[in-house]
Write a structure and sequence with these properties.
Elements lengths: L5 E2 L10 H8 L12 H14 L3 E5 L2 H12 L4 E6 L3 H4 L4 H6 L2 E5 L9 H7 L9 E8 L9 H13 L3 E5 L3 H8 L3 H5 L4 E5 L10 E5 L1 H13 L8 H13 L4 H15 L5 E3 L6 E6 L1 H13 L2 E2 L1 E2 L5 E5 L6 H16 L2
Parallel strand pairs: 1-11, 3-4, 3-5, 5-6, 6-7
Antiparallel strand pairs: 2-8, 7-8, 9-10, 10-13, 12-13
Bound molecules: pyridoxal-5'-phosphate.
The site of pyridoxal-5'-phosphate (PLP) has 11 residues, from helix 3.
């Protein structure tokens, strides 16, 4: 297997830049379990401020951040409404059910990532002892690289409120959503009781997520984080990477979106590759079955890393700050060579 030179597998593969490493190395630290780490406290204040929320909590991963939020909202025997394709339901090993005793009520996502409001409404259970107690509506933005509109989110939040439900947004890539919508990130977060944000994806920090939201929920989350083993000590080293990411790597997400679009426009000119143009930094490509295995092998042999189904018929390409415009050119040239040789 040749080494990966152009790594489109995920925006999680980004490595901290020299400037970020310097900020991390020089971070002033303390013991965060005692609340003493000044850099971590600065990150939490910055995140709360940028997202327009009362409070913030730093956690080691997006998975722990979502689980902490779900457990802050829901107790044993409560239920949350969630999309089938959402990370918190599908890709987090069932943590809410296993560790939180929270019953998921998954609903199909439409192709655009939304869950129809009437389906949400129909899934909310009445107050009857036969049922679990529906407590929470959870959405995700971006979801599969697609952006939920401000209108949709506002309507969903309004519906949840009307039925006495809390709301959580898995905003692992909320800054990509804000970039695509052309609004401040606080507008995307507006109205949600809690929002989970990944610092370690397109923003380029090596580790960490922040859970922002209502003060009472974030404070409940602090106890849950401890229970889950996420209380860290001199975590200011990590938080410094997060601060650097929030201060330096947000505006440039537009470059990732432009790169993904240019990649998509290039790829779709080849017979046998079909795709929708990406809204953000994630691109899905369908590959005709007769070329799927060979095209996958060709990309791999030429150092292009992607993910997708094992048979190569559905590919996922993700752009991020470690694949520049030259990497897009390279991936397209490697693809051109594949098709030219057939
Ligand atoms: C990556 C991701 C997470 C989980 O983050 P980890 O830090 O990998 O645990 C949660 N939600 C979404 C939408 C994600 O893309």
């Amino acid at each position: 297997m040749s080494p990966i030179r152009y790594d489109f597998r995920s925006d999680t593969v980004t490595r901290p830049s020299a400037a970020m490493r310097t900020a991390m190395a020089n971070a002033e630290v303390g013991d965060d379990v005692f609340g003493d780490d000044p850099t971590l406290n600065r990150l939490e204040a910055l995140a709360a401020d940028m997202l327009g929320k009362e409070a913030a909590l730093f956690l080691p991963s997006g998975t722990q951040s979502n689980l902490t939020a779900l457990m802050a909202h829901c107790g044993r025997g409560d239920e949350y409404i969630v999309g089938q394709n959402q990370h918190a339901y599908r890709w987090e090993a069932g943590g809410a059910a296993v560790l939180g005793s929270i019953q998921p009520q998954p609903l199909e996502n439409e192709a655009d990532g939304t869950i129809p409001l009437e389906k949400i409404e129909a899934a909310i259970k009445p107050d009857d002892f036969h049922y679990a107690r529906t407590r929470l509506l959870s959405l995700e933005n971006t979801i599969g690289g697609k952006v939920l509109s401000l209108d949709y989110m506002r309507s969903a939040i309004e519906l949840a409120r009307r039925h006495g439900l809390n709301t959580h947004l898995d905003g692992a890539r909320i800054f990509n959503a804000a970039t695509a919508l052309g609004v401040p990130v606080a507008e995307v977060a507006a109205g949600f009781d809690t929002v989970s944000v990944c610092l370690s994806k397109g923003l380029g920090a090596p580790v960490g997520s922040v859970l922002v939201g209502r003060k009472d929920l974030v404070e409940a989350g602090r106890r849950i984080r401890k229970m889950l083993g996420g209380g860290m000590r001199q975590a200011g080293i990590l938080a410094a990477g997060g601060i650097h990411a929030l201060e330096n790597n947000v505006a440039r997400l537009a470059d990732d979106h432009a790169n993904a679009l240019r990649l998509a426009e290039g790829l779709r000119s080849f017979n046998g590759l079909t795709l929708e143009l990406p809204q953000t930094n994630i691109l899905f490509v369908r590959v005709a079955p007769e070329i799927a295995a060979d095209y996958s092998a060709h990309l791999e042999a030429h150092g292009v890393g992607i993910t997708g189904t094992y048979d190569g018929s559905r590919q996922r390409w993700v752009t991020h700050l470690d694949v520049d415009s030259a990497a897009i050119d390279a991936a397209l040239a490697i693809t051109r060579d594949f098709f030219a040789a057939r």
